[in-house]
Amino acid sequence: MGALAAVAGQSARLELRVGGGTLVGLVFFLAVVTIVPFAVGPDLNLLSRIGPAILWIGALLATLLGLDRLFQDDRVDGSLDLLMLSGHPLELIALAKALGHWLATGLPLVVAAPFLGLMLALEPLALATVTLTLLVGTPALTLIGTIGAALATSLGRGGLLIAVLVLPFAIPVLIFGVSAASAVIVGPHPFLPPFLVLIAVTLISSVVAAVAGAAALRAGLE
Description:
Blueprint: H1 2-19, H2 21-40, H3 44-64, H4 69-77, H5 79-84, H6 90-117, H7 124-155, H8 160-185, H9 192-221
Helix pairs in contact: 1-6, 2-3, 2-6, 3-6, 3-7, 3-8, 4-7, 6-7, 6-9, 7-8, 7-9, 8-9
């Protein structure tokens, strides 16, 4: 487990130092949240109702940034071959890479969400709820993106291809994340059922991402 933790830490450090994914993701997240109020107008009641959806959409799109480098750089410099020869299951390596990517790109979005939510006239309880759903749900977005990144690496392509592959499968995460947050703001549906489904989606995504991501990487390296 120490070696896998090292892989996750290395992936996070490279994302922070080299790729600039953290800063780019935060700037993109800020841009989405800033532009929407100009588009819908100064109605604070409307902004507070659609605020969770805006934050979730911004987080989803920001998560897609930098996914094409998740495995591609390791394949180019030969690190991926060394990881496969390390003796550790490729499924756990893919999961560790996804964890490192989320720590560098997804977690900063969660931390920034309460501050950006103030621009959308969200109440303190709504801010806390949206932040909690993002904390639980953004790992699922990264894990789903990991499958797309592995497939793109095996095909030797990235960028738009990853977005096309990932977005349809990320819709359930978006639906249950927004539903759980909106239940606290507008009701009348309870918060717990969609939140528990969101947790289940994240847990299932971790298993699927590990298996499917490893299979795609093996196919690309054979």
